[in-house]
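Try this one yourself first.
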């Protein structure tokens, strides 16, 4: 029973993309902190007191400063996401599901997507769900996105690559390990165009 709860937890919270450039800004701040030499404040000499000696753990101040910068940046990004209600240019497309009473939604943000499924039947033994990208009239192209679902039919998978120019995201049941061409009809189709 606890495993079902643990499997469902990732699907319980909405997923939001961080603002563009956040990673770059955080890494620059960390690099700037690590490149600047540590400063040591010398206390005046007092009778009976010794000046602290620098230990081999002298890297702690820059590391703490860098960690502080990262935490502040993450807090700002989280505040931005909360204040925008998670609407940072994301849109959701309801996908058509066949052969199951489940539902699927494709969440798009910045040319990238995440497919979220609920109440889907798990694929039969020895099979896996595989994500395909359809561009115009060309045959669907395979992706590296293979997934299954939890006991209650929940699952989420990042759709690899940029979705610009993609007319549909499809899912088929394929042999474990995936396939280079679809071997079964699509069970999920999300039309982008």
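Now uncover the answer:
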């Amino acid at each position: 029973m606890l495993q079902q709860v643990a499997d469902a937890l990732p699907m319980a919270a909405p997923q939001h993309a961080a603002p563009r450039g956040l990673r770059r800004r955080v890494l620059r701040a960390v690099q700037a902190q690590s490149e600047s030499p540590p400063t040591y404040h010398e206390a005046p000499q007092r009778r009976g007191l010794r000046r602290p000696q620098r230990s081999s753990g002298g890297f702690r101040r820059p590391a703490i400063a860098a960690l502080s910068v990262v935490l502040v940046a993450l807090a700002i990004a989280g505040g931005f996401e909360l204040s925008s209600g998670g609407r940072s240019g994301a849109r959701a497309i309801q996908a058509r599901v066949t052969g199951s009473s489940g539902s699927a939604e494709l969440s798009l943000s910045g040319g990238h997507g995440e497919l979220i499924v609920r109440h889907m039947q798990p694929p039969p033994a020895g099979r896996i769900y595989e994500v395909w990208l359809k561009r115009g009239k060309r045959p669907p192209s395979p992706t590296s996105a293979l997934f299954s679902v939890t006991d209650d039919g929940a699952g989420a998978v990042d759709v690899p690559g940029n979705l610009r120019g993609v007319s549909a995201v499809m899912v088929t049941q394929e042999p474990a390990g995936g396939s280079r061409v679809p071997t079964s009809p699509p069970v999920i189709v999300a039309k982008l165009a």
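Discussion: The helical segments are 2-12, 22-35, 60-83. The longest strand covers residues 127-134.
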